[in-house]
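Dissemination and training. As part of the outreach component of the grant, students in the summer workshop were shown how a complex can be specified as a set of sequence lines and then modelled as a single object. The example used during the hands-on session is reproduced here so that future cohorts can follow it. Participants entered these lines:
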Amino acid sequence: MPTHAAEIGSPAVRSLSRRSFLAVAGISVAGALAACSGAPTGTKHLRLSSWNIPLDLETYQALADEFVAAHPGTSVAVEVTTGQFHQWFITRLAADLAPDIIRITPQQIGRYAANGSLVDLTGAVPAEYQDDWSEPFWAIGAKADGLFGVFQHTDNFITYYDKRVIEQIGVDVPQTLDEAWRWDEFLEIAREAQRITGRYGFGYGWSGPETAYRWMPLVYQNGGAFLGEDGETPSMDTDAAVGALDFGRRWYADGLVSPANMSKSGGGAVGRDLFTTGQTGLLLDNPEAIAALDEARPGEWGTTYMIRNGGEASDLGGNALAVTRSSKHPELAAELVAFLTSRTNVAEFCRQGNWLPARSSLDAADIGYERHEATMQQFIDQAATIPLSMVRAQSGPYFSSLNSVFADYLDLCFLGELTAAECGAQMTEAMRSVTTR
Amino acid sequence: MSPHGETLTVPGTPTVVTDPGSGPAARSTSAGTTTRRRRARWAPYLFVGPAGLLFLAFSLVPIVIAVALSFQDTATLGDGAWVGADNYRTMLSDPLLRTALLNTLVFTVGTVPTAMAIGLALAVALNRPLPGRGLLRALFFVPMVAAGVVVGVIMSWIFNPDYGVANNALRAVGLDGLPWLTSPRTAMMTLVLVVVWTRIGFCMVIYLGALQSIPSELREAAAIDGASRWQRFRRLTVPMLAPTTSILLILNVVFSLQAFDVIYVMTGGGPGFSTTVLIQYVFRSAFGDARMGYAAALGLLLVLILLVFTLLRQRATKKAEELL
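and obtained this result:
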């Protein structure tokens, strides 16, 4: 009787084994290739990609499952947008593998609407939808040549304060938008806050170079704009814009804000970290700070409206939903976008994720936030101060590139490398090289 | 000759079968020999085939596409307009490119000699019998295997001016904290410091291997001839390490020119433009500014710089070896 080793080692068995292996490998590869090719199975499959926020992913999937239940023969998978957005999206578009629907910020949508990467949703979204969006929020997706996305939710800035610090200062907190602190009042309070904390007065809610635009509302609060009325002419060298830059420069020159709390060279959400750890008395930030504050300092903080000067403005945060040109089922994808942005579903999405609704008819009570309903209503009220001209400029075709310019020059100005006037002039020149490209 | 008595062949050269057997028995196996010979002819291609295919798919084809892209104006991939040499002309008058090139030079000069010198010093120190030598070698090498993004995030915390370990340590000994990453004057120095830290383990390991290959007889002979420890190091060890130094130099320069992740995470090229190096500028042009054609042209400039440097270094090494 041959030994087991001899059986294995015999040429016949070795040959058979090799052939079997190759056959199995061949079948496996063919199967894998067939799977990758997306061979038609009769089911219309959609992919929706969102930022990696677990609660949102769950809500999208739950809503998508409702959609699928009402649309037999369809399926929807929720995916995560990974890494740097433009790198991720451009390479997938090039491979024609972009998801059917993407969650995209107002600052990112303009480039892709202009270069044909997004599908025109005109006619696919119910006409009456526009009536429930403010003009600025509808303008995020609505361009001259079509509707390239529907704004789903926003998350603008208001002012957080440390109750202990404000009590010690003895200042009344604004209760309405009309009472919001003006710049000079705010700086005075911030100086007092700095004295009490022993470190800094306040923090600003940047979280990286891609969020440099979050400072732009200050320009509009001062009556300026970073692009002219034509939406193309850079205007950061006007008196109003230079005045805003000078205001920002004073934050750092006077030591009211940490130099690490900067959009480009800062280390992430530094402003939020400093406020959470009691090293600042005030924070200008969006609702995303609430979760961290509830965990670190429950009951020790309050909120009031965003600061203002001659005018009012707040950050344009949030996301739209858009259909990409890679979609094999654009009509169905557009239908899903309309479903997700229905009044009921916007309310559900905002309730689950603590977001602010893009729909004007929804207030905090309608949504039924589990916590901080008054604060969420402040955010919703503040959203009405976001100017249309800023929205048009930020959701325009140049903005993704202009944002890099803002990140570069805000650093240089605020760190004292450039005066406000020099910064305004150089920034305008750099912006011009983008808009005339 | 192989251990089995067959001459290994390369395609295109005459094959000589040196089977130790001869006569009728050998003739009867001629058919099998021909099959083996045919297999032997294809074997080298089969061995290099997978690597060749990978090189073709992931190196050569992308380079060709990049060259084509560099003559186009396009915000995305695949649908550009041909603009001739416009992108290359733009490079000549681009002030940010000049800044990026200068920063790249500063970064490379700051990181490469420092990492190599410290790596050599550590290799010499750890080449001697020391307690815990193995552990120390491993500890110095750990930063090299850590992911750049992880290193970048951790270092951002360490060098945070408000709550970072670095400034807390300085304050603990009565010194003022430094604006490590928040000043255009210190950010590049901090990056150099971090990158050197990640790279000294690699240099150390390569130098350790080279040191151990130097015959001990040479050192002993030099010692008998009266050479001091420094003279033995300067006149014997360093020249014997020349080929290793050459390879390390090329590798380190390539690493420095390609250093992206740590810089991207720690400074994003800022404050201002103070740490924007060429590879950062390529990425920014491609995905931040949506200028794929221009980014491809910048990428080819980077390739050209690497190519010129490698050729120069190869010539210098050849001359050094001739002198030896």
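Chain B has two domains: 24-69, 86-323. Students were then asked to discuss how this feature might be tested experimentally.
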